[in-house]
């Protein structure tokens, strides 16, 4: 954060406020970790805080300190709307456009509160009075740590806050292997461990609590993988019928797309997952090197994200979606095979 942002935030929070803290729809480890960490920090500063999620989040994150206090817009609709309407300040974390919160968007658009954005995705919208945006950060959790540090409050980071921030950094960096992981990221993680973050327990709770049905679903996904050697590309499909067959629960497909990138020479990996209720195929894009899946998702699939990790959607059938996707690849053959 720069000096002006810190000064503006200190002024905004100079007296006790009613603060709503919002992650994106289908929140992941970074979204849940950052919102819970910020909520606990601001509560220590004397504010009345509440994390309000657009919908439910994966079971493997529900152990996190404070996760049981999150209000779910789909399940606690009246309470969520009331808190947003009465909030003095709304922090939006790990997203930068109201389009990322689903049906909650209307509430945010009509809110009288002042908005603060903390996010590391590209091309932020301009809705916030304070926008802390840094696409070079590994995660929004790393940004929350930096925010707390900039406010002069590192001493307020306790074990619960450290566990939340560690979880978000770990998950959003692919256990510290992605390119956005810097030496500063590791220094922050070291301090979080000094503050009590239990790295071994966090890894086990996030990655080692699979159900048999999730592993069977992974087997189905890998069996469905198609490799397009000509374009150094691999894609996976999962239909609603396949999800239902293996008792899909929210979060079960987390990380599946990354298996494509474990293949030798593959530079572009994609997964298409049907959501029959919404009438779409949700798409996750991953890449290595300089190939921007953010631009690819924005240009063709109503999405966006980071250079090497992005999301999108398609309202076409699976066959039409795949045909369209494959038809785009010749335009990028040089970039994918260089």
UniProtKB/TrEMBL annotation:
One of its GO terms (molecular function) is nucleic acid binding. Residues 245-328 form the DHHA1 domain. Pfam families: DHH, DHHA1. It comes from Maribacter algicola. This is Bifunctional oligoribonuclease/PAP phosphatase NrnA. It comes from the Bacteria. Residues 18-169 form the DDH domain. InterPro entries: DDH_dom, DHH_sf, DHHA1_dom, Oligoribo/pAp-PDE_c-di-AMP_PDE.
